[in-house]
């Protein structure tokens, strides 16, 4: 990567004190020009880096844009920027990320929670009452993002989070502890393998669903994420198929399954729901008008 002289000087200067607004705009340009981010994306990342380093909220940056940043803070900011220029995702650099406005610790053993997945939370919040004593299963929980947000919204629910990866579950547990949630438990399991004799009102999953030949896997962010969180056999359908087939046995009467899938998988996923006795099948589009979530209720 070639960074012009002006930016090299900024990156390497450690004793300079600069104004908040100046650093904000320089980092935005630097990230945008070198990582092919849109200005909007780069501005957001620059903001996260500055906020994280100064331990302040967005409002503080707006109100104090004419403040000077101390040299040691400036140095730290530039260390983060340098690391980001190696294409490492910002979430892994800062070791935390926001999902549904809640903080989640992350590392390279878990998928970075996506904004797309927030759609799943919106749907469930729309379809269930917050006072309901639901029993919820989040399969392939990773950082715990989906299950933890649901446990915090549905205080009377009992939520079970599972993953096959012990390393991922270590992060899940850290996040449960951080959010002080008592209505959650975790279990290491290959999908339903260790979940005998339990039935749920709601099974939710964002499983691996990318075909190993999908060219999106060349995307720089995905290169840093765990392959077992992304790729699934049978052209991306192996895990989705397994979950849809096995779920009915673990659902209570009128229980529902919600599953996130790839941009090009909605037709086949709907067929899988139909073949496995689901009714009231619904599909939800993301902001780009692509069907990304399929849900269905089990016949009584
Ligand atoms: C796409 S990630 C989703 C993580 C998280 N739910 C989210 O939405 O951010 C898929 C998760 O499924 C887990 N996983 C993969 N194969 C699994 C299996 N056979 N049984 C249980 N979990 C599995 C991975 O470890 C990963 O954490």
Number of domains: 2
Number of helices: 13
CATH-defined fold name of the largest domain: Rossmann fold
CATH superfamily of the largest domain: Vaccinia Virus protein VP39
How far apart are the termini?
59 Å
Radius of gyration: 21 Å
Biggest β-sheet: strands ordered side by side in the sheet: 7-6-5-8-9-11-10
* Hetero compounds: S-adenosylmethionine
What does this structure look like?
With 300 residues, this protein is of the alpha/beta class. The chain has 2 domains: 3-86, Helicase, Ruva Protein, domain 3, CATH 1.10.8; 96-298, Rossmann fold (3-Layer(aba) Sandwich), CATH 3.40.50.150. Helices cover 42% and strands 20% of the residues. It contains 13 helices and 11 strands. The chain has helices spanning 5-12, 20-35, 39-54, 58-63, 71-84, 90-94, 118-127, 145-153, 166-178, 220-224, 227-230, 238-246, 266-275; strands spanning 18-19, 68-69, 96-99, 102-105, 135-139, 158-163, 184-188, 200-205, 251-260, 278-285, 291-298. Strands 7-6-5-8-9-11-10 form a 7-stranded mixed sheet, with helices on both faces. Strand 5, helix 8 (145-153) and strand 6 (158-163) form a beta-alpha-beta unit. The mean pLDDT is 93. S-adenosylmethionine (SAM) binds at residues 110-111, 113, 117, 140-143, 145-146, 162-165, 168, 190-191, 206-208, 228-229, 239. Residues 110-111, 113, 117, 140-143, 145-146, 162-165, 168, 190-191, 206-208, 228-229, 239 line the site of S-adenosylmethionine (SAM).
């Amino acid at each position: 990567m070639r960074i012009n002289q002006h930016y090299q000087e900024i990156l390497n200067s450690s004793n300079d004190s600069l104004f908040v607004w100046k650093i904000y705009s320089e980092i935005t340009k630097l990230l945008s020009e070198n990582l092919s981010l849109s200005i909007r994306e780069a501005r957001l990342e620059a903001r996260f880096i500055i906020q994280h380093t100064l331990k302040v909220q967005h409002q503080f940056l707006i109100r104090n844009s004419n403040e000077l940043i101390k040299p040691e803070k400036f140095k730290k900011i530039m260390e983060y920027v340098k690391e980001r220029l190696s294409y490492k995702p910002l979430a892994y650099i800062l070791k935390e990320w926001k999902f549904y406005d809640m903080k989640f610790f992350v590392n390279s053993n878990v998928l970075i929670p996506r904004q797309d997945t927030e759609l799943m939370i919106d749907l469930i919040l729309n379809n269930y009452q917050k006072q309901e004593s639901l029993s919820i299963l989040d399969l392939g929980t990773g950082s715990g993002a989906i299950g933890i947000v649901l446990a915090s919204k549905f205080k009377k629910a009992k939520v079970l989070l599972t993953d096959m990866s012990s390393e991922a579950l270590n992060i899940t547990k850290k996040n449960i502890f951080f959010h002080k949630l008592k209505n959650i438990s975790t279990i290491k399991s290959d999908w339903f393998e260790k979940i005998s004799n339990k039935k749920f009102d709601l099974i939710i999953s964002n499983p691996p669903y990318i075909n190993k030949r999908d060219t999106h896997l060349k995307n720089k962010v995905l290169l840093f994420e765990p392959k077992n969180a992304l790729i699934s056999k049978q052209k991306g359908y192996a895990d989705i198929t397994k979950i849809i087939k096995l779920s009915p046995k673990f659902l209570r009467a009128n229980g529902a399954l919600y599953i996130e899938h790839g941009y090009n998988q909605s037709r086949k996923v709907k067929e899988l729901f139909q073949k496995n006795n689901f009714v009231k099948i619904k599909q939800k589009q993301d902001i780009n008008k692509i069907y990304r979530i399929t849900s269905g209720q089990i016949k009584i």
